[in-house]
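Fold this sequence, please.
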Amino acid sequence: MGLSVKSDLIAARPRKAGWRVNVIVTLVSLGLSLLLAEALLRWVGHDHPQWNKLDPLVGWRPRGGVTGWYSGEVDNYIAINQEGYRDVDHPLAKPPGTYRILLLGDSMSEGVEVALQDVYWKRLESILPECPAFSGRRIEVISLAVNGYGTAQEYLTLRERGLKYRPDLVLLAFFTGNDFTDNTKALGRHRHRPYFVLRDGSLVLEQTAGMALDFASHQRFEYWRQRLLDPIRIVQLFRQAQTRLRVLLRYGRADPNRIDQPGLDSRIFVPPATPDWEQAWAVTEALINAIAESARANGATFAMTTLTNPFQVLPDAATRDRFAKELGVQNLTYPDRRLAEFAADRGYPDATLAPALAAYAAEHHAALHGSDPREPIGHWNALGHRLAAQELGRNLCDFMAAGRLSPAPTPPQSGSNTLR
């Protein structure tokens, strides 16, 4: 009996020891597999960093000096300059003989879907010197465009980052697809986005990310997570998969035959029918005025360009007409026409790109948005950027020849555009 018990104890020890060995072997194998996977991802050049960091005023901005692959409609290798924008680095002092343009915009102008030299505003640097009205001056375009920005963020960016460059021209690139909804809390509802409201005819900054009680701790957490985890390629791969799954579950597959596309709002094609949309238009127009006044107060001219919404330039004109009919309007030009009238009333040069680009798309049956001609939605592709550059360059040349891009006297500060 005693020998049996002793034998059982002796047999149990190897089993227990074997269990521990199995766990250790499994953990070591897993660790080596992860290290091998990390090395393999680095060897093949997989580098998809987290591009943005939190900012207390504008909500977010790109991390300066970051390079890598940007995954979206297409995978494209891009670089962020030291200031934190998708552009080359620019000196603060303007070189002699240079006409400096400061561009404000969102993802349509950031243009991560194409090479930097193909983005429309970068093309202006070679297009505008051919215009006699610019007298052979060197053209320098400084882009402060950021993915997801609305007009409020662009206005704050101009005041905080843009005016120090002493531009000759501040050019606002307005995207009707979502800039209106980005400008009001009732329609946008983004926890980090700054929002202005109109009170007694004045713009009041009602919300910024930094006003949240937990912002400082959230910002510190994000900072250290980016420093410690973001360089790990396996973490990047997992984050990519998580993001794509979230987008798929939220939006499903994009359908060019629908007018309710992800990130866009079809209500911009009709006159505002609710108080929230009336407020969106009023705040947006006040913000445009505020940008113009800030530019003029600092010795720069102000102009704007209204970019194309993908539905306005679909290759199939019949599909455009069908969308308009579904919305109960004759065409899809309401936001462009209203912005053009607004700009004309205030003397702002406005280059509306949709008519020319829509005509080209219909004539050549060419997709100007998106990477797949069968789904001509999303951001501009290389052809869209090229045509936009040509049309915008022609307009700026005409504006310059007419003397409309020369700095004007500072206008009196109207109450409707005063920041409080």
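The two ends are 92 Å apart (CA to CA). The domain at 55-208+267-417 is CATH 3.40.50.1110 (Rossmann fold).
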